[in-house]
Amino acid sequence: MAVQKYVVRLLTVGALALALTGCVSVPDAIKGSSPTPQQDLVRVMNAPELYVGQEARFGGKVVEVFNQQGKTRLEIATVPLDSGARPILGDASRGRIYADVNGFLDPVDFRGQLITVVGTIAGAEQGKIGNTPYKFMVLQTNGYKRWRVVQQVMMPPPVDPWYWGPHPLAVWLWLRWLASLRPRTRSGSDSSNRVSNCYY
């Protein structure tokens, strides 16, 4: 009986790990054609003319939406991307870009949302943030992904009160797993449960 419970738990953890690794891949809509699209906005803005025509991928929060003739311009406050090309929450903005998307996008659906865009660098253009002049990198977008974020809390598995005790190896594995659920937070305090952000 105890062995069966242990095997079931082990298989469940294995299936969960496989499911989570499957979520790391970059969605087709923002893969692009280059194996390594440019993602360093600071480097591009130091010499934008050198990167014109190159493929790039950036993501962050849509600050403003401008509907223009035949296209929509998204003003994005960019942040670093993770291995799945998702904006990393909590990071400071690396700068702003204009992402031009063909067709009409409703501002209500995009303003304030997290997004990743891929396309060709078209150069830089002067604009403003409030009343302050600002140089924006312009991206001719050929793909984008709008992200929705759901927060998940993972709890440790329950312990059966009628269970006499697991195999010593199972105890070691369980304690190791439990320790991994207690990451350091930014303030330095321990978190009793793992809180993760799930994108879709």
Automatic annotation (TrEMBL):
<feature type="signal peptide">
    <location>
        <begin position="1"/>
        <end position="19"/>
    </location>
</feature>
<dbReference type="InterPro" id="IPR004658">
    <property type="entry name" value="OMP_Slp"/>
</dbReference>
<dbReference type="Pfam" id="PF03843">
    <property type="entry name" value="Slp"/>
</dbReference>
<protein>
    <submittedName>
        <fullName>Outer membrane protein slp</fullName>
    </submittedName>
</protein>
<dbReference type="GO" id="GO:0019867">
    <property type="term" value="C:outer membrane"/>
</dbReference>
<keyword id="KW-0732">Signal</keyword>
